[in-house]
Design goal:
With 258 residues, this protein is an alpha/beta fold. It has one domain: 4-Layer Sandwich (Metallo-beta-lactamase, Chain A). It is built from seven helices and 13 strands. It has a six-stranded mixed beta sheet with strand order 8-9-10-11-12-13, with no helix packed on it. The protein has a five-stranded mixed beta sheet with strand order 1-2-3-6-7. A hairpin with a 5-residue loop joins strand 4 and strand 5.
Amino acid sequence: MFGVVPKPLWEKRIPADERNRIPLALRCLLVETPDALVLVDTGIGNKEDEKFREIYGVENDGSPTRLEDAIRDAGHEPGDVDVVISTHLHFDHAGGNTLRDADGRVRPAFPGARHVVQRGELAFARRDNERVRASYMPGHYEPVDEAGLWELVDGPAEIVPGVSVRPTPGHTPHHQSVILRSGGETACFLADLVPTTAHLPLPWIMGYDLEPLVTLESKRALLGRARDEDWLLIFEHDPAVPWGRLDPAADRPRLRDD
């Protein structure tokens, strides 16, 4: 998760277990707007076998997933979701786009929703090269395509009023973050641009990132604007801090104490 950053530095922020694993959240975002119910990312889903779950330490028990339970806890049914936005198609962000039903079939988990992703991200996922094969699993995105649910965008786009996507490449060539605007306020779902608060320093970049120098410039641009405009930043993987705002007086990206 920390690439070339030495372990004596990063383990002060998020200590590892005896297998060198660290605790991470899989924080999806449900956005209620006057026009649509929007779900940003869908987590791992329910299709992976016990070996996969043991390797990654996945805790995802639910009916069939904790995401489905969380949507109900928010006062909605999964079938109420109008739009699913995938920041990218790695298994921990798009795995819940589909589910394995009681008959063992893999099908879209949100069949009434349009699914938004960058056109280049879907094309890249399908290239199937050895470097990324373990991260892109066709069962998370091909059933969505077969059902005719993909809405492919090219670059920045407004998805519904108040909800837009912004390319933030580096982690993948076509990674996108999600911008929310309401009542004069702005929030940003960072996804894997800045997966945890420990990744706020510009050079703290994941080993998973395919183009780390591109990530650095994406972080510089977005975090600079977020600081200047006092955006609320939402962290998808931080185990303890779901959101925060940057300290405008700091000489490097860090959260305000409040």
